[in-house]
Design goal:
CATH class: Alpha Beta
CATH architecture: 3-Layer(aba) Sandwich
Number of strands: 5
Strand content: 35-45%
Oligomer: single chain
Order of helices and strands: HEEEHEE
CATH topology: Trna Endonuclease, Chain: A, domain 1
Shape: globular
Largest sheet: 5 strands, mixed
Amino acid sequence: MDISSKTRKEVGALGENVAAEYLKRHGFSIRDRNVVRKTGELDIIAKKEDTLHFVEVKTILADEFPHEDDTGDGYDPSLNLHEAKIRKVARTGEWYVLEKEWGGDWQVDGCLVWLRRRDGMAKVRYLPQIV
């Protein structure tokens, strides 16, 4: 399935779905998705053991997946996980914790998703505790 014609919003939604599946396969339960408040948006809210994880997902369409040791010219979606964005997610996470009366630990994580244009295959890199 060629995904080249997908809109930016559709690519983002695909990436979030891939990230949610990845998290489930790694022992997380998904508690909420796309929670929007004045302070920002939380892409995925997941729980693992006694910790709540606010996961910011960054997705990019790619012709090929990057290699672990790749330092080439390929765009790195982690560049969009800049300090201001992370701060916004953390602020929105604080609101969520208060509203849900969560008494346990919580953290902000990142999840990078590369979607290959020609077939929609995905590569995921999970970044725990980016704050």
